[in-house]
Amino acid sequence: MRRRLRRRADNVGDFPHGDDRAFEGGTEPVTGEAQVAETALLERVAVAGHDGYDRVVFQFKNGLPGYRVEYVEPPLREDGSGNLVRLDGEAFVVVRMEPASGFDLSVPEGEMVYTGPRRIAGDGTSVLNEVVRTGDFEAVLTWAVGLDARVPFRVLTLDDPARIVVDFGSP
Q1: Greatest CA separation found in the chain?
Q2: What's the CA gap between 10 and 53, in Å, rounded?
């Protein structure tokens, strides 16, 4: 049994469903259009386990980027460099967001907006092992999620603050 470090996804909003309802999701790619013209600035990533699902939240400072969430086959590689990315799991989901970045180039000399870790353990989760940033290059921000198995997922967006939420069904 692996040991996981706890990192809660507080203040992310619950996806409404009753306790007697099965997790509703799928395994096909899910996409969404950008809701801002400028580069969306990532300021927070959080992971948490909930009853019936594990959740990853990407929180943005100035609005939502476009996104594509999909299962991929290994090996996983960093955007730009092509370096191999190690990720704990048997199944892998990539969350690609654009235009998005953790670095604000619109201010003189730039400003780091996302100051959190590049790798987040899935402590307290059922199927999610870890989440790893695999790219922040030319306004394309990519994170990969390592899972114990290929499970259904759902994607939703929330406002105030702007968030892309990815839930993974768990037993």
Answers
A1: 53
A2: 15
Q: How many CB atoms lie within 10 A of CB 27?
A: 14
Please give the sequence-ordered ranges of beta strands (E in DSSP) within 5-161, or none if there are none: 30-32, 40-50, 53-60, 66-72, 76-77, 84-85, 91-98, 100-101, 103-104, 111-112, 119-121, 128-137, 140-147, 153-158
Q: In the numeric block, which tokens belong to residue 147?
A: 């899972």
Q: What token pair was written down for 19?
A: 């306790």
Q: How far apart are the first and last CA of the chain?
A: 17
- How far is residue 163's CA from residue 36's CA, in Å, rounded to a whole number? 13
Please, where are the H alpha helices in 15-150? none
Write out pLDDT tens, residues 111-125: 999 999 999 999 999
CB 57 within 8 A of CB 165: yes
Cβ proximity of 148 and 2 under 8 Å: no
Cα 41 to its chain centre, rounded Å, is 14
Whole-model pTM: value is: 0.88
